[in-house]
């Protein structure tokens, strides 16, 4: 018989184990027990016990010849189940592959999660020189095409809350770091039905992004192409914009949403 006390203890142990997994990121893929204890604010002895269980179950693994740990293959397997079973990613991939082939640029799928842009899927063109993002990467949304589309689709109260709790950091000299200027940019994105990242997230890289909407008309994701700036000139840009907007419209239709030709739901 599980008592209330035991049940509360088990829930707390689960929360602590998840906190440990959350401590890992692309920026800090390897952590020692000492650093984990500092990050999750738990006694080192508690972290040792939880890490041992996570290693036994395959969610963490020890980095060879070190005292550090990293995410294990079981976590990767669970992530793959999510990617393969999520209708958005599954429905988007064939369209993204055609988009990458038609434009010769890397196609990206992104969502907003806890105020951050998450790269959910990537389809690269068949060419030796290409832009490459990392699936699962998180970053600030305001200096990316994907992120600007997603922010433009937020209800006003959520956008205001988002801007109120985040500092608009700059990644390049062209990044927008003023809230007022960002709002003007988001107005243009809504009016045009697409966003452009002109070397705002990476020097020498450009991006065109468009929204993906669900059946209620809400922007739930964004699709884009990214590549070197020299290939996003005046001749190519109209064709790229049209291709990306059409891809967003096609993915929206596959998940039960629809975009009118003006780009709005």
Short description:
This protein is an alpha+beta fold and 265 residues long. Helices cover 45% and strands 19% of the residues. The strands form 2 sheets. Strands 6-5-4-9-8-7 form a 6-stranded antiparallel sheet, with helices on both faces. Strands 1-3-2 form a 3-stranded antiparallel sheet.
Largest sheet strand order: 6-5-4-9-8-7
| Alpha-carbon Rg, integer | 21 Å
What sort of overall outline do the alpha carbons produce when their principal axes are compared? globular
The strand count comes to 9
Portion of residues within helices: 40-55%
Euclidean distance between termini CA atoms:
53 Å
List keywords for this structure.
about 260 residues, alpha+beta, 6-stranded antiparallel beta sheet, 3-stranded antiparallel beta sheet, 9 helices, 9 strands, about 45% helix, disordered C terminus
Topology:
Elements lengths: L3 H19 L7 E3 H8 L3 H13 L3 E3 L5 E4 L1 H13 L1 H17 L2 E8 L2 E8 L14 E2 L5 H8 L3 H10 L13 H14 L2 E4 L6 E9 L5 E10 L8 H18 L11
Description of the structure:
The chain is of the alpha+beta class. The chain is built from 9 helices and 9 strands. Strands 6-5-4-9-8-7 form a 6-stranded antiparallel beta sheet, sandwiched between helices. It has a 3-stranded antiparallel beta sheet with strand order 1-3-2. The longest helix has 19 residues, at 4-22. Residues 260-265 have low confidence and may be disordered.
